[in-house]
Design brief:
It is built from twelve helices and 14 strands. By secondary structure, the chain is of the alpha+beta class. It has two domains: 2-52 and 275-407, no CATH class; 83-262, no CATH class. Strands 1, 4, 5, 6, 7, 8, 9, 10, 11, 12, 13 and 14 form a twelve-stranded mixed sheet that branches. It has a two-stranded antiparallel ribbon with strand order 2-3. β5 (116-118) and β6 form a beta hairpin. α2 (18-56) runs antiparallel to α11 and α10 runs antiparallel to α11 (372-398).
Length: 409
């Protein structure tokens, strides 16, 4: 009963100082929304990435120029890459590695921010153009839902992502097969449509047009252009031997001398995912720091409000004490008031946070899940902030002399 009375008193006090309480509540809500929302969004992105990498499989490898972190003249750190893997090197690797228990594909980025047209319809300029060979689908996570793969030495044909079909031809993939599209002034006939991958995949593959590699090389190639080499190992137990063989072949192709360090690297699909997880882990900590700083500001504001409330209600405290209320009763009353404000702020913040998480899930086309762990963490933090912020004002109120309090004007 005493606890219920304290909650009622807290409610009436908040109501009587509505504007001040609301401002503090909103600051707390922003901090909790930041904490719950961004952490939920990170989980959604990780879930989407996990799904994509699981489709890709643990038997996938990629060969790329090695990144080096070097000291700069200004005392910082510069990220530099080794020489590009040229088209000649990529194709030679593909030829020499064939028959070694792995499918090898070569692909290259052609151009971003392109507009795709078909008849009177056109996309906005946010789509991408990539060149791929006939093995690309074997080494990637992408699947055809309609049409066919490229044939060797094919030109002016295209495989398109689901978003291209949606914008130009409606939702039915079959309608796109055999239709012509215009990209950068060139006409391509659509021969295949890819299954929707979701924008959680790298660069949003749903908004890509893929053209044959030879054509891409001729139209968009230049001497220092980098070409991506991907491998799909048929037997996952042979990953390590395949990596060793790939290193030996690429060292030979790039004319590296014995003892000379590799100027390229071979990455497993799961190692790429682990790097991304490390990056999101850093983002998690940064989010927590920002949220805690916001909540620190809110706690200072709440403490200030509670101190003002104690001053304004000095006579009330004197009356309550003269009627038999103990110091502990007064202490619990003001602590309950501070915690109540924080809990209200936490509830608003959690609702905002769930909204942020849901929005990100919609963007990455993932499965929405209620972030129970972050919600519980948010409420625990709210109660903690309420106790810390309200403790000093509550102690001050509990120690007031009832006679002096009754004299207060």
């Amino acid at each position: 009963m005493v606890a219920l009375e304290n909650v009622k008193e807290a409610y009436y006090s908040i109501k009587s100082n509505f504007v001040r309480s609301l401002l503090t509540l909103l600051i707390i809500a922003v901090g909790i929304a930041c904490l719950v929302g961004i952490l939920t969004a990170i989980d959604a992105i990780l879930f989407s990435m996990n799904s994509n990498f699981n489709r890709l499989g643990a038997n996938s490898l990629s060969v790329k120029p090695r990144s080096e972190t070097l000291s700069s003249n200004r005392g910082g750190r510069d990220q530099r890459k080794s020489k590009s893997i040229t088209i000649e090197q990529a194709l030679e690797f593909k030829e020499r590695f064939s028959g070694k228990g792995a499918a090898v594909s070569v692909d290259a980025w052609c151009k971003g921010n392109v507009t795709i047209k078909s008849g009177s319809e056109k996309t906005n300029p946010t789509f991408q153009l990539r060149g791929i060979d006939e093995n690309f689908l074997l080494t990637s996570s992408f699947e055809l839902i309609e049409g066919r793969n490229f044939l060797k030495n094919e030109t002016y044909k295209a495989i398109v992502g689901s978003e291209v079909v949606k914008v130009l031809f409606g939702e039915v993939a079959k309608k796109a097969i055999g239709k012509e599209i215009v990209v950068e002034g060139d006409r391509y006939t659509i021969v295949g449509v890819l299954k929707q991958n979701g924008s959680g995949s790298a660069d949003n593959s749903d908004k890509r047009v893929y053209i044959p590699l030879d054509l891409a090389k001729n139209k968009y190639g230049y001497p220092e252009k980098n070409y991506n080499v991907s491998l799909a190992v048929q037997n996952p137990t042979q990953i390590d031997p395949t990596i060793e063989a790939a290193i030996a072949v690429m060292r030979n192709i790039r004319a590296l001398k014995p003892g000379e360090e590799n100027d390229f690297e071979i990455a497993k699909s799961d190692s790429i995912l682990n790097r991304l997880k490390e990056m999101t882990s850093t983002l998690r900590w940064a989010t927590m720091v920002i949220a805690m700083l916001t909540l620190l500001g809110a706690s200072i504001g709440l403490m200030n409000i509670m101190l003002v409330s104690v001053t304004e209600r000095t006579r009330e405290i004197g009356v309550r004490k003269s009627l038999g209320a103990t110091g502990n009763n007064i202490l619990m009353q003001f602590l309950t008031e501070a915690v109540t404000i924080c809990i209200f702020g936490g509830i608003v913040g959690i609702l905002l946070g769930i909204g942020i998480g849901f929005g990100v899930n919609v963007l990455v086309k993932g499965s929405f899940f209620i972030p129970w762990a972050w919600m519980i963490l948010g409420m625990v933090v709210c109660v903690f902030v309420g106790v810390i912020s309200g403790l000093y004002p509550a102690l001050k109120a509990s120690k007031l002399d009832p006679i002096e309090a009754l004299r207060y004007e």
